[in-house]
Design goal:
- Helices cover 76% and strands 0% of the residues.
- It is elongated and about 75 Å long.
- It is mostly helical.
């Protein structure tokens, strides 16, 4: 009789993974807040509601793609993409403030 295979126990994450997770934890709320503020600066309360809906969609999309909010196999490109998106939201927010 053979023994059932034991699943490998996941060890502690690396410093790089922890750093990427911390950056993701910083960038997602920052990008979401900038999106809501951009909507508010652009279209007043209705824009803030649209921005909040965009934040909710963004969160559901991320969760659906990775099956968790903080995946264990984060890549620098994923976090870099979120950083670029947050920077774009910030740029649009400051452009909307100027007009």
């Amino acid at each position: 009789m053979t023994q059932p295979e034991k699943l490998p126990v996941s060890g502690p994450t690396t410093v790089q993974q922890d750093t990427l997770a911390a950056a993701l934890g910083l960038l997602m709320p920052l990008g979401g807040g900038l999106l809501v503020m951009w909507g508010y600066a652009w279209l007043d309360v209705f824009g803030a509601i649209i921005g909040a809906a965009g934040v909710a969609w963004w969160g559901f999309w991320w969760y659906g793609k990775h099956k968790t909010l903080f995946p264990k196999d984060l890549r620098g490109g994923q976090v870099g993409g979120i950083a670029a998106l947050a920077a774009l939201f910030g740029l649009f927010f400051f452009i909307a403030l100027g007009s």
